[in-house]
Amino acid sequence: MTGSVGGMDSRGLQPIVDRLAEQIGRNVAIDDPQMHLLAYSAQVGPTDLQRVQSVLQMKVEESLVKHVYRQGIGSAEAPVLVRGIAELAFLDRRCFPVRCQGLLFGFLWIIDEDHSLPAESMELCVAAAVAAGEILMRERFLNDERRVREADLLGGLLGSDERVRARSYDEGLQEQLFGPAEACCCVLIRDLGNDGSTPGSATALDHLLRNLGQRVAPLSAMALVKDRGARGVLLVHGDEQTIGRFVDDTARALLTEAVESLPEAVVPSVGVGSVERSVAQARSSYQTAKLATTVGSHVEEFGTVTVWSRLGVYQLLARFPGVATREAPLPAAVRTLLEDKNAEQMVETLEAYLDLGGSVQACVKQLQLHRTSLYYRISRIEQLTGLSLSNGEDRLLLHVGLKLARLQGALPGQYGVK
After folding, report:
1. Burial 29-40 (b: 16+ CB within 10 A, else e)
2. Are strands 80-82 and 93-100 parallel, antiparallel or unpaired?
């Protein structure tokens, strides 16, 4: 089995890898500088467990990355003999830096447990590494140019200027970056901890978004990092039904990989926007993705990946003016309830009662209360608010008011923001 994977369009590496493996009768693999697998040959000659795992997982364990870098491969201009680790089933290897014009693009690896690789094979490996470096340099230029263009168009599609959005959409169609009948959905990652000021977070986030965007097939994606790394946007586009099936997995993969790869000070959250029927409506999806992250940061039940389509009444409340700044006015009855000395107990009881549709049986079970205690609390709530829980409009006012207070982080005790 052979393969070409990784962050770049490294299909040009495969003929190099296959030919070299045939010439020297050994396994050949090429990794990028982060040890993500770019290309590998069929099984030829000696192998080890780490070789097999790198093919299956597309990357190398962090401990091994540190081990090989400690042996000087990062600054090497010539082949390096990398010592193995027996307990990790990692055999000795020859590492051939893949460089072009002084820039490091990765490493070509040959397992050489008994140090028997002939000199003529070494020369062939060096020549293959040079050829791979030239291919990756060319691909970097092409990819960088395309990424810059995609980011520019995506920024226009998400912006507030309607004329710029229309022009960006037309240019994207002309450049065949997306089709006229493609739906779209924005996946937004936001750094809640430091507004993107952590050194390296913007670069790491850009790398993360680009790599993830290349793994959403059969869909396509464009990526953009905004606000010095505080926010990153992945616009997934393609068939509408397919987006509905894939976008959740994409969002959760984004969060998982962000936690693993971003600086420790970064506390990311992910919002999934509405699915729009045209890329021309990308801004609408982006706006709802932003609102979803706002809801997720205040309402614990939605967790760290918040999907707009599942927000229920919070879809409406999140659009209220002043919600994000906690300036949206609460109903007077709710404010009175929150000012009571037993506010936490009253709020817990009222919210459970309303969430459960006024079912006394379900409420006493959830709160582990006696019916008499529940009736007393309901009576006290009615006295405090001047409203009747047997009246539909009063119940609606209190229910919506509590949800708005929750969204603003105004509820007491355990009901506050995360």
Report:
1. bbbbbebbbbbb
2. antiparallel
Summarised one tens digit per residue, pLDDT across range 219-264 is: 888 988 876 556 889 999 999 888 987 888 888 888 887 777 666 6
Q: How far apart are CA 32 and CA 118, in angstroms?
A: 25
Q: Which amino acid is at 255?
A: L
Find the helix or strand (DSSP H, E) in which 252 lies.
Answer: helix 240-261
How many angstroms separate the most distant Cα atoms in the chain?
93
| pLDDT tens by residue, 56-96 | 766 677 788 888 899 999 889 999 999 988 888 889 999 99
CB within 8 Å of 255: residues ≥ 6 apart = 189, 268, 269, 270, 304, 305
- Distance (Å, rounded) from C-alpha 180 to C-alpha 185? 15
Exposure class string for 240-274: b at 16+ Cβ within 10 A, else e: beebeebbeebbebbbebbeeebeeebebbbbbbb
How many Å apart are CA 408 and CA 404, to the nearest integer? 6
pLDDT at 149 over 60: yes
Which amino acid appears at position 79 of this protein?
P
Residue type, 144: D
What is the tens place of the pLDDT at every residue in 122-136? 999 999 999 999 998
At 164, the pLDDT band (50, 70, 90 cuts) reads very high
In 3D space, the residue among 330, 295, 83, 293 whose CA is nearest the CA of residue 191 turns out to be 293
pTM value surpassing 0.85: no
The 8-class DSSP code of residue 328 comes to: S
Query: Would you place residue 4 in the very low, low, confident or very high pLDDT band (cuts 50, 70, 90)?
Result: very low
- Which run of H or of E encompasses 82? strand 80-82
Q: The tokens of 327 are what?
A: 């300036």
Give the H or E element holding residue 39: strand 37-40
CA distances from 29 to 8, 102, 105, 255, 370 (A): 15, 21, 14, 29, 68
Output the six-digit token pair for 89: 């089933």
Residue 303, class by beta-carbon neighbours within 10 Å (0-12 exposed, 13-18 middle, 19+ buried)? middle
Q: What pLDDT sits at residue 19?
A: 94
Q: Given a cut of 70, is residue 308 above it in pLDDT?
A: yes
